[in-house]
Amino acid sequence: xxxxxxxxxxxxxxxxxxxxxxxxxxxxxxxxxxxxxxxxxxxxxxxxxxxxxxxxxxxxxxxxxxxxxxxxxxxxxxxxxxxxxxxxxxxxxxxxxxxxxxxxxxxxxxxxxxxxxxxxxxxxxxxxxxxxxxxxxxxxxxxxxxxxxxxxxxxxxxxxxxxxxxxxxxxxxxxxxxxxxxxxxxxxxxxxxxxxxxxxxxxxxxxxxxxxxxxxxxxxxxxxxxxxxxxxxxxxxxxxxxxxxxxxxxxxxxxxxxxxxxxxxxxxxxxxxxxxxxxxxxxxxxxxxxxxxxxxxxxxxxxxxxxxxxxxxxxxxxxxxxxxxxxxxxxxxxxxxxxxxxxxxxxxxxxxxxxxxxxxxxxxxxxxxxxxxxxxxxxxxxxxxxxxxxxxxxxxxxxxxxxxxxxxxxxxxxxxxxxxxxxxxxxxxxxxxxxxxxxxxxxxxxxxxxxxxxxxxxxxxxxxxxxxxxxxxxxxxxxxxxxxx
Length: 485
Ligand code: NDP
Prior knowledge:
15% strand
């Protein structure tokens, strides 16, 4: 309780001098008995928590979600139960590969993570500004991210590694094409769409499920930066997107997105022409049109960046009844990796921090751990089953059962057409957009020293669309390999 503006130590005692260290005489050495000084320096050394390995640079904002369409036929999620219902939320946008102090306006996917504080617990929708991803099995994720990070010897970014990995992982072609297109550098965080990217399952009151994909469409319109403008801004104001989001909200210009879902009957998953759980593919909107769900508005800035944005912990496994996962192999890996990252980075009790805490009461038998700063369950019963009226499970909230069959093996996906959808994207671009795409790719691939890597990647572009591959090859002064033609 603050009753005046008296400066205190971290244990609450008044501080007599916060400007001068205690020394043995005016020119003498500093004394170890100056415990306030020791605590101040030691705390300062510990001001940083480990940086996120990916998505380190980000900006966040509070807001709300309002339901605008009746989706109760598909999900029993309480926050979606009524038109007009509002749920508070927190969003964190980020780049992926750069460090905490890196520039915002670089070519990189953007993280688009939303935490809904629902009455049934928190629901995290941890997506990107792209509908697909580079890889489709989490076992490749650490290798992929290594190629996006720095070379172990030079500590420099390494285009050779980037294109080596991509050219040997053709499932990345669709996302690489999006990344190298105009949408690879959004003008601001406000001017981009968001996607859940993975397939999820919605389950209704009767226990009937559907597969879904989420799309947040920006109401500000899509706006992008060219490579040249992005590079210029990165030098002049590396925090451009962070500043834009904060200032827009501060002046009352609240950014908003409409949320839509695509809905696929469960049985279609066996017959659809692409594997609907493969996160390198989209579901064509001609097959599964967008259905409106609601609207997200960001209308309040964080009070404190560290407490709210840096300590925010999102995970695709933070689910509520009515929303479930799919067998997407990338999603399945993320269900472990995200919570684990937060246990390491913020601590085992990260859920209890104000920004992460559920708005409803959390009741379970977890106790203790570092930084347990609430009453740790007091004297209440701390095991289950028990005879002392402790909290119990509610069977209606079990995950829905479904049938699986097959051989336990590491077999990958059945569908390996990595070219059609990347080609569809190329073909929907205007001539100007295509020219910029080619220019961006040529610029990014030019520093690759190994010609074999370049030719392998050109082969992928060619298979997506012969014009696409031919133009990249021409830009790099190379010929389409004979075996690809
Ligand atoms: P549709 O014509 O029904 O949809 C095209 C989609 O592409 C729209 O979502 C549109 O979103 C988006 N789009 C338009 N211009 C660009 C661009 N320059 N860069 C990236 N996306 C753009 O076709 P399909 O659903 O059959 O998909 C065709 C191709 O569109 C796919 O292969 C995929 O590459 C791309 N795409 C598909 C999405 C999907 O969920 N089906 C989502 C995003 C892209 P908008 O007009 O709002 O910008």
